[in-house]
Every structure is written in C-alpha cells, then in structure tokens.
Amino acid sequence: MRVLVAYGTTGGGTGEIAAWIADELQAAGLTVSLVPAGEVTGVAEYDAVILGSALYAYGWHADARRFVQRFSQRLTGRPVWLFSSGPLDVSADTGPVPPVRHAETALRELGAREHQTFGGRMTTDAHGWLGHVARQLAREGHAGDFRNPGRVRAWARGLADEITAS
Ligand SMILES: Cc1cc2nc3c(=O)[nH]c(=O)nc-3n(C[C@H](O)[C@H](O)[C@H](O)COP(=O)(O)O)c2cc1C
C-alpha cells in the first residue's frame, strides 16, 4: 500500500518529524513518499495520507493550508491523519492540545481521522529571521527542541496498523 507523508515547514523541524513517521511506516512494510506539501502534484496513487504542519502565530504553514485546498475533493473516502508541530515546552506531551483553527478546517475538509500536536523545535542555529527570533526566545529561556521522537514514532506505528488493516 502506498502512503503520502506531506509536510509544511520553515525551519525543518516538522520535516524531520514527517521523516520519523515515514521511517516507521516503511518499517511496517508500507511504500512511503515523503514530500514537502508544496511539492505534491497529485494524490491519486496513495491509499492513505498523513499531512503535518509547523505552527506559526496560531496557524498552519501556508503549504499545508494550500494542500488542504488543492486536494480536499480528491481525498474523499481515503484515510487521512493530521499533525501539528509547535509548542516550545512540554505541553504537547503532558495532555491533549486542541487543534488550531487551520487544523480544524483540515480535519473537516479532508474528513481526517485524527489530529495530533507534537512539540516543536526552535534552536539558535536557525538561519535568517527564524534565527533572529530563536536567539530572542533563547534569551527569554524559551528556545529548545521539544520534539519527542518516541511519541511520534509510536503514533506512526499505530497508523501503520490501521492502514494495513484497512
Ligand atoms: C514567529 C514564530 C511564531 C510561532 N508561533 C507558534 C504558535 O502559534 N504555536 C506554537 O505551538 N508554536 C509556535 N511557534 C513554534 C514553532 O511552531 C516551532 O518552532 C516549530 O517546531 C517550527 O517548525 P519548523 O521548524 O518545521 O518550521 C512559533 C515560532 C516562531 C518563530
């Protein structure tokens, strides 16, 4: 079975989460395409889709939002899962984080089965404006890597089970 893992990222942190997910799906025997959401040209060949986005200013990355607009009509009836990556603290691992408005829209438009929020990453080695913000956050004690590969990978193994069973 073929699975698309698509993601919207600015600093690369969400792309890496998507890669962990793709890795677990592949290990479960699925054929996986890992593609930035803005580079996806079609979804016809996929049996299931996982779409993730970085969170900026309480919203989804533009590439992930556009993916929803471009493909919502074509994914009807196929299993879709969503994730967001953002919180720069442990909140995503200590309790459910409600989806932001764009994620709620994506849940509805894509008929997605579930949405998860994972912790984010903001480190001072980021480039450009992101690096500037990161260094500011670091001075305020908020920068760091709050992603949890174990939780992400466990979630992906659950998805692999559901996809394989469907
Ligand atoms: C300007 C700015 C705004 C942000 N806004 C949010 C936000 O609203 N909610 C959130 O959970 N995280 C927010 N974050 C944290 C990012 O979502 C986090 O760093 C994420 O890992 C970035 O993903 P990326 O590396 O894939 O771009 C923000 C970060 C920056 C720099």
Automatic annotation (TrEMBL):
Give one Pfam hit by family name. Answer: Flavodoxin_5
GO MF annotations in UniProt: FMN binding; menaquinone-dependent protoporphyrinogen oxidase activity
Q: Where is the Flavodoxin-like domain?
A: 3-160
Q: Which biological process annotations from GO are given for this protein?
A: heme biosynthetic process
Cite the InterPro entries for this sequence: Flavodoxin/NO_synth (IPR008254), Flavodoxin_dom (IPR026816), Flavoprotein-like_sf (IPR029039), Protoporphyrinogen_IX_DH (IPR052200)
Q: Could you tell me which SUPFAM superfamilies the record lists for this protein?
A: Flavoproteins
**Protein's name according to its UniProt entry:** Flavodoxin
Say which species the protein is native to.
Paractinoplanes tereljensis
